[in-house]
Request: fold
Amino acid sequence: MTDERGRVRNGDGDLGIYSLTDDADIRILGQNSVARILEGGPVPLVVLPVWVDTRIRDGSLIDLNTAAERNYNDVHKRFVPFSSLPADQDQFPLGKQRTLQAKKDQAERIEIVFPDNLPQDLAFCEPMSISTGYPLIHLKGRLQRFDPRLFGTATEQPTLIPSELSHALHFSRLDRTARSRVERDYVSFLLSDLAAGQGGVHKIGKRTSSMVAYIEAMDHFSSRFSVFLRQPGLGVNVETEFVNRELSDTGNHWLGRMPQAGIMTANVVSPKFKGSDDEGAIYGAIFLDFARRTTLAIAVEAYYGSQAISFGQYKSWVHIKMSQHAADIDQVATDWNL
Reply:
């Protein structure tokens, strides 16, 4: 086990591990407090746990890819419900167990398979996997239709993990019935879109469905906010600054090829996209317009807390649980035609 600084500690919490020499053979499991990594083999739907066997010496450093954990810490852990977890549990979005073995084996977990062995072209987050009933993120390998957003390039921001992890965290908050409905209805959308010759894809500005648009809105927030947090010269209140910069008319937008959802002039927001079946409209309405009227923390808390899968459910939850903001969400719904 390691502490918050990545230093190895034994079962009693003391630094180091028990060894008669200054080296030791260890097995590193592809699993941390946020996600478990799996490997897709040649047979579809068959996935295997990932581990690395290595020998370390006293003082050795091992570099691990912890993109999902970093995104959780940077973006999601600052908001309720994750920010309200006890201090010794806030690294574990799906719950902390008493022992490392129990945590490793618990059914409630987010998994990531890489490289994915299913026939689709794009990465996606399966709401309810066959093995656990919880979210499974599918990522394509370099020999497949590789998405450069996975690791980032000179022209692409590394936003794929932030995008898909946001779905996994959202789906993990839903009950089993809701996860099953999302899986069924999302597949239905993909099949009908493919049948219509539209490629089975979603994007800002494309009409999909109220459920697809709502789900993908969190994708945009997580990826954009993670990019924003890497910008130099941020102030103290990064959440307010994020909303203001997203709504500012900056010409060459700081997000590059990601389109703006709206522009604010004299404290009035002009939406660039409208309608409950457009993910750009849902993103702008919740994470920008509703957030500026209240706070970004309130907008995100309502998204996770409502366990909604449509804007209508989100709005109803705000009316019941955050009635002091009912007028704000109603005005947002009107302005964005939701």
Summary: Residues 176-195 form the longest helix (20 residues). The longest strand covers residues 23-29. Residues 68 and 165 are 7 Å apart (CA to CA).
